[in-house]
Amino acid sequence: MMFTTPIMTLISFIVSFFTMVSALPVSVRDVYVPPVTYPTAGTVWHIGQNYNVTWDTSDPPVNITNKYGMIVLAKGGIALDYDSPLAANFSILDGTHEITVPNVDPGDDYAIVLFGDSGNYSPEFTITN
Ligand SMILES: *[C@@H]1O[C@H](CO)[C@@H](O)[C@H](O)[C@H]1NC(C)=O
Ligand SMILES: *[C@@H]1O[C@H](CO)[C@@H](O)[C@H](O)[C@H]1NC(C)=O
Ligand SMILES: *[C@@H]1O[C@H](CO)[C@@H](O)[C@H](O)[C@H]1NC(C)=O
């Protein structure tokens, strides 16, 4: 599911702008935002446990603008902390990356945001103790 409130669009624009700048030089750029396939709606994560976030890499463009991925936790549709992502600096072509659930308030409106060129939101799922 993709949320496109103006704030998030702005945030992901800013983030993708900076990641784009750091990914120089490339002559031809393709925006690549693979869909998150896990977690899904109905997923329940436990604080302190490890899980593999997965995404669909079946259709990457030839020239990827930014091949480094970053995973950020979001709550209520708002990405939480870009300065301390759950994971960063992995290849966006990996299709999977293991994360540890941080010590956050339990809730049923969490989502994972996978950043490549832009941000792609997973469905909302639950984090519990
Ligand atoms: C990918 O980039 C290379 C080198 O810049 C370029 O020659 C090629 O045409 C690009 N391919 C596509 C599909 O954009
Ligand atoms: C995540 O995937 C890797 C590679 O397949 C595997 O070794 C690891 O055990 C998985 N972690 C979890 C928490 O399932
Ligand atoms: C990613 O790599 C950059 C540059 O090497 C480094 O400054 C940054 O701390 C790394 N981020 C993470 C989450 O490992």
Automatic annotation (TrEMBL):
Keywords: Signal
Pfam families to which the protein is assigned, alphabetical: Kre9_KNH
Residues of the Yeast cell wall synthesis Kre9/Knh1-like N-terminal domain: 39-127
Superkingdom to which the source organism belongs: Eukaryota
Signal sequence annotation: 1-23
Entry annotated with the keyword Signal: yes
Name assigned to this protein: Yeast cell wall synthesis Kre9/Knh1-like N-terminal domain-containing protein
Organism: Gloeophyllum trabeum (strain ATCC 11539 / FP-39264 / Madison 617)
